[in-house]
């Protein structure tokens, strides 16, 4: 990995760590100020509005990151396309808010969706500024803007909740974060778009972006079938319980994984003509994600009960089994994540779309089977779908392009075995220490899980993996100074 890449990775991870801390503080504080129904209403609004965000982007952020060179005219054209798309999608959200609220039998959803529509305009304006900063490898600037926006919006939400704003505190938080983020990336980029012009060479970017958009729509639907199912048939309160588990685990997980794509796609694009280095980077990427994120997820699953008691408080006990099941799902998704890098790097958007159509059907079947059993059934269906999709993802990818399939499979097998053993040890210890304070149970379980990794390191293959991940982390820290 080059010095610039290592430094960029280090800055990105540092920024994401800061964002996760702020997100964690938000979950801890606001969960004690708001009710499950408040969170459920926002969750329904974000699910419905979120699909508009996919159309707002048009896949152009990814297209801008992927191309080796981007002219000034192309950048200007992409800015105006994203801005126009944001305005159109915002108008559509405002017009459809009433029928959507009727479909969910929740009148409060109508003003919530109309308010959240403002994020389309703000994010449309910010899209190419963020893409430009990433193209320049200014990951530290992007991370700083994200953290600052999150801090300000958190403060605004706490103030609003303290004044009795209920779910409106969460809506204001979303709008404030988008607005502050826009102001900061514009200030950092120091660039103003020119007027759009003909012949800017946007067609290849639009062609690629359209394929990405289709894939993202299908992926979004598959990822949110759980929320839609609970919102339609169980109501906001049940969805609020599920949403707290999701926000506590999956949101920070996505915040850690997503920058990996921003970093990996331009790097892998430069390695396309060097197959051995390309494969090596891909395998190392999976090991780095697995021995860090999957390890953490295994420990969270093992200590789900005391984690929920400590973070959310006594009235959220029902979140614990949901959190454990989501940790299982997140582990499987993380192991498959590097495949997305290959699809995007090699322009295989059509193949990725077909794959996501298959997984959409699989997810729908699993979640439908679990829906009659309420929140836990939906969480179990979501986890089952993720476990089935992981081996399918590697097989599907190997059919359409060359990848180091065996190395990825063996690496994932080692990661899974270590994580399962560590999670089991963590759970056993937290159960044995049932009468202890939550913090003590979490610490004891975590130490038991890490002890398993210490024993696993006696195996040469696992020791080699762990040494490689530690060395990579050391280079990121050194380059980030």
Automatic annotation (TrEMBL):
Return the Pfam families for the record: Polysacc_synt_3 (PF13440)
Source organism's superkingdom?
Bacteria
| UniProt membrane topology term | Multi-pass membrane protein
Transmembrane stretches in the record are 79-100, 112-129, 141-169, 175-193, 287-308, 320-343, 355-388, 442-462
Q: Which UniProt keywords apply?
A: Cell membrane, Membrane, Transmembrane, Transmembrane helix
Per its UniProt record, what InterPro entries does this chain match? Poly_Biosynth_Transport
Cellular compartments annotated: Cell membrane
- Cellular component per GO, a single term: plasma membrane
Q: Does the keyword Iron apply?
A: no
Q: Per the record's keyword annotation, is Membrane included, yes or no? A: yes
Q: Which family does it belong to?
A: Belongs to the polysaccharide synthase family.
What is this protein's name?
Answer: Lipopolysaccharide biosynthesis protein
């Amino acid at each position: 990995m080059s010095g610039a890449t290592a430094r960029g990775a280090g800055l990105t991870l540092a920024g994401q760590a800061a964002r996760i801390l702020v997100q964690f503080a938000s979950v801890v504080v606001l969960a004690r100020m708001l009710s499950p129904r408040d969170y459920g209403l926002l969750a329904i609004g974000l699910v419905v509005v979120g699909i508009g965000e996919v159309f707002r982007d048009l896949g152009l952020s990814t297209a801008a990151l992927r191309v080796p060179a981007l002219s000034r005219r192309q950048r200007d054209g992409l800015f105006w396309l994203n801005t126009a798309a944001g305005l159109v999608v915002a108008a559509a959200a405002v017009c459809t808010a009433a029928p959507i609220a009727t479909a969910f039998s929740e009148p409060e959803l109508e003003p919530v969706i109309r308010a959240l529509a403002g994020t389309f305009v703000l994010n449309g304006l910010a899209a190419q500024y963020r893409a430009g900063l990433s193209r320049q490898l200014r990951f530290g600037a992007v991370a700083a803007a994200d953290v600052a926006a999150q801090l300000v919006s958190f403060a605004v939400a706490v103030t609003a909740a303290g004044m009795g704003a209920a779910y409106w505190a969460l809506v204001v938080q979303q709008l404030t974060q988008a607005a502050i983020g826009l102001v900061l990336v514009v200030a950092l980029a120091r660039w103003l778009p020119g007027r759009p012009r003909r012949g800017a060479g946007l067609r290849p970017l639009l062609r690629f972006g359209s394929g990405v958009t289709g894939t993202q729509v299908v992926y979004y639907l598959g990822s949110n079938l759980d929320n839609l199912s609970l919102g339609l048939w169980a109501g906001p309160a049940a969805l609020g319980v599920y949403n707290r588990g999701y926000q506590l685990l999956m949101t920070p997980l996505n915040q850690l994984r997503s920058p990996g794509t921003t970093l990996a796609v331009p790097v892998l694009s430069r390695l396309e003509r060097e197959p051995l280095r390309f494969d090596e980077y891909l395998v190392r990427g999976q090991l780095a994600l697995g021995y860090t994120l999957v390890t953490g997820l295994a420990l969270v699953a093992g200590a789900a009960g005391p984690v929920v008691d400590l973070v959310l408080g006594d009235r959220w006990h029902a979140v614990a089994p949901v959190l454990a099941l989501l940790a299982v799902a997140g582990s499987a998704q993380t192991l498959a994540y590097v495949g997305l890098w290959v699809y995007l790097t090699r322009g295989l958007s059509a193949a990725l779309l077909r794959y996501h159509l298959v997984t959409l059907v699989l997810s729908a079947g699993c979640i439908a089977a679990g829906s009659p059993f309420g929140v836990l059934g939906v969480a179990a269906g979501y986890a089952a779908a993720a476990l089935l999709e992981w081996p399918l993802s590697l097989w599907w990818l190997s059919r359409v392009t060359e990848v180091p399939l065996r190395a990825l499979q063996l690496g994932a097998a080692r990661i899974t075995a270590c994580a399962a053993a560590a999670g089991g040890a963590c759970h056993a210890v937290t159960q044995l220490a049932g009468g202890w304070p939550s913090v003590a149970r979490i610490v004891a379980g975590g130490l038991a899980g890490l002890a398993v990794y210490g024993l696993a390191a006696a195996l040469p293959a696992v020791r080699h993996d762990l040494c490689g991940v530690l060395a990579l982390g050391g280079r990121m820290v050194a380059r980030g100074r």
